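Input structure tokens:
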């Protein structure tokens, strides 16, 4: 049986990486970091449209590599939906490969991180304004709805988010055998 992939999706500075790490620890399963972070650190210049395709391919490769280490779950800190939204926002287009992969790749659950955490400055983050974070949240919410996968919004502080996420995993993926 293939491990269930759980996607953590949301705007910048909404606790996606922290939630992935916390879930990884709680379930003793691997998590997929955001490939863009490593790519952009090495790039050394502002990213361009073509870089988004390279980031997308790197994210898919990393996810497919780490799923081999998973037993029950793989926690994914972002996916190609983020590349799609950023590409549309910055360049008014998305590479067809990215759109095709979004349709092909499946997740057992999407956990959408709310904008209720304070902004944490980071050189790779672009939109500290709450209205922009909410704008992106709405875009991700719409994509989660359209995905056909179960999804839930997690909010509050770190411990609360982890509790909510575990409850949603139990609700959707452990119906008869909660942890």
């Amino acid at each position: 049986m293939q491990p269930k992939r759980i996607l953590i999706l949301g705007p910048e500075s909404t606790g996606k990486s922290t939630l992935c790490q916390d879930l990884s620890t709680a379930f003793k399963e691997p998590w997929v970091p955001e490939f863009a972070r490593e790519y952009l650190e090495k790039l050394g210049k502002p990213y361009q449209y073509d870089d988004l395709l390279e980031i997308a391919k790197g994210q898919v490769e990393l996810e497919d590599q780490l799923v081999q280490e998973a037993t029950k779950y793989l926690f994914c800190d972002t996916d190609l939906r983020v590349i799609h939204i950023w590409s549309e926002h910055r360049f008014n287009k998305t590479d067809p490969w990215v759109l095709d992969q979004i349709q092909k790749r499946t997740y057992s659950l999407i956990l959408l991180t709310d904008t209720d955490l304070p902004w944490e400055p980071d050189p790779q983050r672009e939109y500290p304004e709450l209205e922009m974070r909410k704008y992106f949240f709405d875009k991700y919410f719409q994509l989660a709805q359209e995905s056909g996968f179960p999804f839930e919004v997690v909010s509050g502080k770190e411990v609360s988010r982890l509790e909510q996420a575990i409850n949603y995993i139990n609700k959707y993926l452990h119906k008869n055998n909660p942890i």
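Strands lie at 4-9, 31-32, 73-77, 109-113, 151-154. DSSP finds seven helices and five strands in the chain.
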